[in-house]
Design a protein that fits this description.
The complex is a heterodimer of chains A (about 260) and B (about 450). Chain A is built from ten helices and ten strands. With about 260 residues, chain A is α/β, with parallel strands linked by helices. Chain A has one domain (about 5-105, about 180-255): Rossmann fold (3-Layer(aba) Sandwich), CATH 3.40.50. The longest helix of chain A is centred in the middle third of the chain and has 14 residues, at about 130-140. The two termini of chain A are about 30 Å apart. Helix content of chain B is about 75%, strand content about 0%. In chain B, helix 9 (about 260-275) crosses helix 11 and helix 13 (about 350-380) packs antiparallel against helix 16. Classes of the chains: A alpha/beta (about 260), B mainly alpha (about 450).
Chain lengths: ~260, ~450
């Protein structure tokens, strides 16, 4: 494994899991996952439904803590620090590792209050002007500013699905995370909104490390640099996206990406 | 009784044979039927039952009229010429006597003869009706049976009958409500003939004394409802001071913090509170809370009346805690899980998530729950009758005795009054006003719940 942070072809590892296992009650959902997530890249997690990719994603910011009856084992590190270490507060962890969900889930508040929610909680703005700046820059980065700058006071729940999802991305950007986890962010959206979000993901890569779960293999090929193929709670293969799609080493990966199962 | 049983048996048989016939006409391929066999069964059963029941009622109606005519025709001249009420009374007594009861008028040979013929004729009527009803039931179901066919559309008529039954059931509750409203409204209008409506709504003196004799002094009384409404508001306010925070916090605990095992115990316990009869709360307030408050007041140097708005309000607050908590709990539980996830995913703590996302999102539902609880408190009677007192004080001091609208309605109606005296009619006016207030609150509350539901669909 690459440990050196200076080698140009091997970007440094932002998050790392080792022998990560997880059970829902008696049912094992993850059977020892070893994955390195490179910084400032988009890592796509693909695999058939129920293969554990969303579960794995939720382990990375400990959203699994909120589910009853979950037990985990193994190591998950962020910048080489175990995120389950007693020195790590789960609340701080989630501020550093943000999450965008499958279904757009804006709060039933105004556009402004949606974005300002995280910064207010974490005290990121000293006054109203700084907060305004955070809201504006987050919306700009999410490519939403042009569309909503005139109606920051409108209810976010009244926007279109694609706008809502970009708002959710802007909302997670507003807390200045280092990693953004995206759980099938486009599955509820039409092709045009999907294209906009994919563009956005590509732009965000410069500032954030992104891990995206997707069922859409074309999407994985379009937006990601690394792809990891999951099956039945196991990580079958992980490689650069181009390599994985062109010459998969595992026959199971090949079957999946050529549409023979899944 | 016998007819009912016979008809049920007949209809059951009709159902059974209709269904069998429907299966047999297809030669076992029931999928060829337009309507499923069970609808054919119901069709035949209804064809039997509906005409039979209708005919039965028709025969009873016409028969009773004919019996009365026959008996009157057989009466001796002077009785036949009597006025309608006298004649009606005679007939009623004949019926009572025929049924083995004791008549209200003197027993005369004419009455006995009338009773005897009444007995005979009504027996005849009974059997004729019985036979005719069963007969038409048999004929109609027979016709319906013959008409069973592969392409026969029996589902539509059966479902239409079902629709009518459902509609009638729904209409009963709506019509009852309308009936109550109108009867109260008309009596209230009669009251406002005697007492001007403005005096009633804005008068500050309530003393509904009506003279027992015409020449008695002070026979007019005063019907200013303001003290009653302030009393009601005071008690309700105290009640909501108790029920609001306690109900809200317990709902937050149940919906957000309690683990499932605690919730399984605590939620039914809270709901039992709603099942306690209000009269039990009433004597709890009057016999335990009020004296305790008085004692506590004395030791603190306060003057607390033995019947106080505070005692009634505290206990009423206890009573409506379940309303607040269970409606709030529902509202909190209806907040989608992805909003919680979104908040937690942004690094909010559980408590921040609850106070900044979940409660605001549930707020319309919570407020609606509060309003329903308020309207419940305003209309509550038993506790205030027993614990709040009867004195119509215009005061905002919860340590004093006050009276409420509901208490006054009770006291106005339990006296020996003429029904059309101002005192009795005042109860209707109070009832109407109270009804308007609670109706308004309920409408506002329902509106809020509706708006809230739209948000997450």
């Amino acid at each position: 494994m690459v440990e050196s942070k200076d080698t140009p072809d091997a970007p440094c590892v932002k998050m790392r899991t080792r022998r990560l296992k997880l059970w829902y009650g008696d049912k094992q959902a993850l059977a020892g996952i070893d994955l390195d997530v490179p910084e400032h890249q988009v890592t796509a997690l693909i695999g058939p439904s129920g293969c554990g990719k969303t579960t794995f994603l939720k382990c990375l910011n400990r959203m699994t803590d909120t589910i009853e009856g979950v037990t985990t084992e193994g190591r998950v590190t962020l910048d080489e620090v175990d995120i389950r270490d007693r020195s790590v507060d789960v609340v701080q962890l989630r501020a550093r590792v943000g999450m965008v969900f499958q279904k757009p889930n804006p709060f039933p508040k105004t556009v402004y209050d949606n974005i300002a929610y995280g910064p207010r909680i974490h005290g990121l703005a000293a006054n109203r002007r700084e907060l305004d700046d955070i809201v504006e820059s987050s919306l700009r980065r999410a490519g939403l500013w042009e569309e909503v700058s005139g109606r920051l006071g409108d209810l976010a729940t009244g926007m279109s699905g694609g706008q809502q999802q970009r708002l959710c991305i802007a909302r997670s950007i507003a807390v200045a995370p280092e990693v953004i986890l995206m759980d099938e962010p486009c599955s509820a959206l039409d092709p045009i909104s999907t294209a906009r979000i994919e563009e956005l993901i590509d732009e965000l890569r410069a500032n954030y490390t992104i891990i995206i779960v997707t069922h859409n293999l074309q999407q994985a090929a379009r937006v990601s640099q690394m792809t990891a193929f999951f099956h039945l709670g196991r990580l079958i293969e992980v490689n650069g996206t181009a390599e994985l799609f062109q010459s998969p080493t595992e026959s199971m990966t090949e079957d999946y990406i050529t549409g023979r199962f899944g | 009784m016998m007819l009912t049983l016979a008809l049920i048996c007949l209809a059951a048989a009709a159902f059974f044979f209709g269904q069998r016939k429907a299966v047999s006409v297809t030669g076992g391929r029931t999928s060829a039927l337009h309507s499923r066999p069970v609808y054919h069964g119901w069709y035949v059963a209804l064809a039997c039952g509906l005409p039979a029941v209708s005919l039965w009622f028709l025969i009873l109606l016409v028969g009773d009229w004919m019996i009365d005519r026959t008996i009157v025709a057989a009466l001796p001249g002077e009785l036949r010429e009597a006025s309608a009420p006298v004649l009606q009374r005679f007939l009623n007594d004949a019926e009572t006597l025929a049924a083995g009861g004791v008549p209200t008028i003197e027993l005369t040979p004419e009455l006995e003869a009338a009773a005897a013929s009444f007995r005979r004729l009504s027996l005849l009527e009974h059997w004729v009706g019985f036979g005719a009803a069963l007969g038409i039931g048999l004929i109609a179901s027979g016709i319906a049976m013959r008409r069973i066919d592969v392409s026969r559309r029996t589902r539509q008529p059966v479902e239409r009958v079902l629709l009518i039954v459902l509609l009638a059931a729904a209409a009963i509750s709506v019509l009852t409500t309308a009936g109550i409203v109108f009867s109260v409204l008309f009596e209230a209008i009669r009251f406002f003939d005697k007492v001007p409506i403005l005096d009633f709504l804005f008068g500050v003196k309530w003393s509904p004394q009506i003279a027992l004799r015409e020449d008695q002094v002070g026979s007019s009384g005063a019907f200013g409802a303001i003290p009653l409404f302030t009393g009601t508001l005071l008690v309700t306010f105290v009640a909501m001071l108790v029920a609001g925070p306690v109900g809200l916090l317990s709902a937050v605990y149940l919906a957000e913090y309690a683990d499932p095992r605690h919730r399984a115990v605590a939620k039914p316990m809270l709901e039992i509170l709603a099942g306690i009869p209000t009269v039990v709360y009433g004597f709890f307030a009057a016999l335990i809370v009020a004296p305790a408050l008085r004692q506590a007041g004395i030791s603190l140097g306060l003057d607390v009346a033995s019947e106080s708005a505070l005692a009634a309000g505290l206990v009423m607050g206890m009573m409506i805690i379940p309303f607040v908590s269970s409606l709030t709990d529902d509202a909190l539980a209806a907040v989608p899980a992805d909003l919680r996830d979104a908040s937690l995913g942004l690094g909010a703590t559980h408590q921040e998530t609850v106070t900044r996302v979940v409660i605001p999102a549930a707020l319309p539902g919570i407020v609606a729950g509060f309003l329903l609880a308020v309207s419940r408190a305003i209309g509550e009677t038993m506790i205030v009758v027993m614990a709040a007192g009867l004195a119509a004080n215009l005061t905002a001091n919860p340590f004093e005795a006050v009276t409420t609208v509901t208490v006054q309605i009770v006291t106005l109606l339990i006296g020996d009054q003429e029904f059309d005296s101002a005192k009795t009619l005042a109860a209707f006016a109070l009832g109407l006003t109270l009804f308007m207030v609670t109706l308004g609150l309920n409408i506002v509350a329902l509106r809020m719940v509706q708006k809230y539901q739209e948000q997450y669909d």
